[in-house]
Sequence to fold (404 residues):
Amino acid sequence: MTFWATVAIASLASTVAASPLVSHLDAGSLFGRTSCGTSTPLSCHNTTKQTNLCCFESPGGSILQTQFWDTSPSTGPSNSWTIHGLWPDHCDNSFSENCDPSRDYSSITNILQNAGATDILSYMQTYWKNDPDDGSDEEFWEHEWSTHGTCYSTLQPSCISGGVQGQDAVYFFTRVVNTFKTLNTYNFLSSEGIAPSSSTTHTLSSLQSALKSAYGFTPALTCDGSDLNQISYYFNLQGSLIDGTLVPYNAPSGSSDCPSSGIKYLPKSGSGGGSPTSTGGGSIPTGGSGSLPSKGTIQSSTGTGCLLSLATWSTQTCATFTYSGSASGFTMTSSKGECGVLSGALTCGSGVSSSTFTAVTSGGQLLLAYQGSTSFSANAVPSGETQETVFTGTSHSQKLSFVL
Ligand SMILES: *[C@@H]1O[C@H](CO)[C@@H](O)[C@H](O)[C@H]1NC(C)=O
Fold:
């Protein structure tokens, strides 16, 4: 807090930056509003020392949009790659990390919500997935921000007048999502006749030439053994990451890390659905069975209590939820509004963007599942008037499932 206040005063004194004063977190109205203009050189292409690093990205002028193709376990929609990050590598391919621990934010979800960037957040919930064995999506976003996001010179607090804590991260996450949306690797490959298969093998050069012909530039590919699992698209930046232009270029030679042949592009299992270009596309997992009612209560599998309209667990009168979709993928609402998972907790309300749930048949019951898992947990068993927050996964002490 004090850090930002200090910076705000400093930046008023020497306004290098061009953004107007902001008094609250802002999702979008400031985009296109730096006065960096188009006269600064392209990052990594300057011939003289640049002094205004709010408008010239340095030293991280080689920007990589990295994506995962996770099949073990599968994450995200089965017809889309998922976001890894947007990394400011140095022009010589070295890089800096963790550039400003004072800006390691504790909740990217809250920052984006407070900025009103709910469309960006809900897109991230579908397309920016952590490996569930490594932690939550929120943890992954925090990691990407603190490790890489804090290294952008053009997102330094002194470049953003007003000193609203978190605005730098709003700009970062918005730019990552909007950049990813233009880099639909799944479609690039499928337009060249390359679809996931558990038996077909590819050479590195055939994959690279397919991507070059679909996209125009050659990205770098990374494999896990012989399984294709990551791609990096390379850019230089003209202006600020906030609203400058990302200019693509070919990945440097030697930047791919796959065998030259025998590469497999394996299918994802378990989920499918949305495509990065569809608006609000949630993942529509398959594999559920049993038919979903159109509405009903959601009971605890422990026999104690049920969900109230805010999706809290309680022994008070159960709420009625309305389901839309099928067992293999549905959204739900209560009298409070749409229901979703925010920061790992179930919640329903007017500002909530819906998550996609599935219904899984188990022991003759239809269980609520999120990202394929029927496991939920809470800090305590409710009694009387108490309401317990319900978390996805088993990280809290009282573990339970919910019967639809
Ligand atoms: C480009 O600008 C950066 C930042 O000032 C500087 O470090 C670098 O040396 C410059 N490159 C050239 C070739 O002048």
Q: What stands out?
A: The pocket of 2-acetamido-2-deoxy-beta-D-glucopyranose is lined by residues 46-50, 58 (CB under 6 Å). The chain has seven helices and 20 strands. Residues 205 and 346 are 45 Å apart (CA to CA).
